[in-house]
């Protein structure tokens, strides 16, 4: 069975629209893009377009790739102080001369809709309320929609990035799963995936997960996104073969990707409420 992230994302966006519409002012997200990377530009445009779709004001601030770290920090300080800005997102990766950790730590944690500030990373790990990165949040929402309970399940996550693998590890663990987090140095990924009731993979390698690597009726979540030379977009899973063995599987595109967008919008509304505690509807 297909885990249809596209449809769920649209449903979430319809619900958000109804909540956002009566607010005294629209919630505002500012997205910062440094440089000209075409993939990053595509992503940030998708994010600001989705904002518009639900009535959130999405502003894109573009800076040249040679912007200094100091200037970028100044820009973020202005946004931190602006009561009319609810969410701030700095698209990654940043150019090499900029220290990503310094930039992420400069964002007001109450406006950190990406959940990349160490304070939010820590909160999510502790299982207390904070901003969770959008992709892992989207994965959990998709499983929840299909009433796939992770409590007591064996979960294998392939890919240990700060953006996906590590926060997904925390969310799964806090939801009661037993979690294996595999990474680039893991010698035998299949050892972990074969034991897993739920396999989540996001490393950017087409066909990394083949049918022989998963249990019969496993749930397979493909967080990978790869553009082949032919122009076709695929994930990290051999969908054709694995879908015959899995009980549930996400397609690429149309699985986790749209859920990331929906979760970012949810986080922006959450930031609005934090920054407008009197609930000025
Ligand atoms: N680059 C790749 N994924 C993401 C994301 O979720 N947020 C940001 N800010 N940059 C990214």
UniProtKB/TrEMBL annotation:
Family as reported in the entry's similarity comment: Belongs to the tetrahydrofolate dehydrogenase/cyclohydrolase family.
Record domain Tetrahydrofolate dehydrogenase/cyclohydrolase catalytic: where: 3-114
Function of the molecule: Catalyzes the oxidation of 5,10-methylenetetrahydrofolate to 5,10-methenyltetrahydrofolate and then the hydrolysis of 5,10-methenyltetrahydrofolate to 10-formyltetrahydrofolate.
Pfam families xrefs: THF_DHG_CYH (PF00763), THF_DHG_CYH_C (PF02882)
Superkingdom as given in the UniProt entry: Bacteria
GO-annotated molecular function: methenyltetrahydrofolate cyclohydrolase activity; methylenetetrahydrofolate dehydrogenase (NADP+) activity
InterPro entries, per database record: Aminoacid_DH-like_N_sf (IPR046346), NAD(P)-bd_dom_sf (IPR036291), THF_DH/CycHdrlase (IPR000672), THF_DH/CycHdrlase_cat_dom (IPR020630), THF_DH/CycHdrlase_CS (IPR020867), THF_DH/CycHdrlase_NAD-bd_dom (IPR020631)
Any one of the GO BP annotations: methionine biosynthetic process
Lineage, opening ranks: Bacteria, Pseudomonadati, Campylobacterota, Epsilonproteobacteria, Campylobacterales
Pathway named in the protein's UniProt entry: One-carbon metabolism; tetrahydrofolate interconversion
Key words of the record: Amino-acid biosynthesis, Histidine biosynthesis, Hydrolase, Methionine biosynthesis, Multifunctional enzyme, NADP, One-carbon metabolism, Oxidoreductase, Purine biosynthesis
Entry binding sites for NADP(+): 159-161, 184, 225
GO CC, one annotated term: cytosol
UniProt keyword Amino-acid biosynthesis, yes or no: yes
Catalyzed reactions: (6R)-5,10-methenyltetrahydrofolate + H2O = (6R)-10-formyltetrahydrofolate + H(+); (6R)-5,10-methylene-5,6,7,8-tetrahydrofolate + NADP(+) = (6R)-5,10-methenyltetrahydrofolate + NADPH
Subunit and interaction comment: Homodimer.
NCBIfam families: PRK14191.1
Keyword Transmembrane: no
EC numbers on record: 1.5.1.5, 3.5.4.9
Residues annotated as domain Tetrahydrofolate dehydrogenase/cyclohydrolase NAD(P)-binding: 133-272
Protein name: Bifunctional protein FolD
């Amino acid at each position: 069975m297909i885990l249809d992230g596209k449809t769920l994302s649209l449903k979430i966006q319809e619900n958000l629209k109804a909540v956002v519409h009566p607010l005294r002012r629209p919630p505002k997200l500012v997205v910062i893009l440094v440089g000209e990377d075409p993939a990053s530009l595509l992503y940030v445009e998708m994010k600001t377009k989705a904002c518009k779709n639900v009535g959130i004001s999405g502003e894109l601030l573009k800076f040249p790739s040679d912007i200094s770290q100091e200037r970028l920090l100044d820009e973020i300080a202005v946004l931190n102080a602006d009561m009319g800005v609810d969410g701030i997102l700095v698209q990654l990766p940043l150019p090499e001369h900029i220290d990503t950790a310094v930039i992420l730590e400069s964002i007001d944690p109450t406006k950190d809709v990406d959940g990349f500030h160490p304070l939010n990373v820590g909160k999510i790990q502790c299982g207390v309320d904070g901003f969770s990165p959008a992709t892992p949040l989207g994965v959990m929402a998709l499983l929840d929609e299909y009433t796939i309970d992770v409590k007591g399940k064996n979960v294998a996550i392939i890919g240990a990035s700060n953006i996906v693998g590590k926060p997904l590890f925390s969310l799964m663990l806090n939801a009661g799963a037993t979690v294996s987090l595999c990474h680039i140095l893991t010698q035998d990924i299949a050892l972990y995936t074969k034991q897993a009731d739920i396999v989540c993979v996001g490393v950017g390698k087409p066909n990394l997960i083949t049918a022989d690597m998963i249990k019969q009726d496993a749930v397979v979540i493909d967080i990978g996104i790869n553009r082949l030379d032919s122009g076709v977009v695929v994930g990290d899973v051999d969908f054709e073969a694995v879908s015959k063995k899995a009980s549930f599987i996400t397609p690429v595109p149309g699985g986790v990707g749209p859920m990331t967008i929906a979760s970012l919008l949810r986080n922006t509304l959450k930031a609005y409420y934090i920054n407008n505690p009197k609930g000025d509807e």
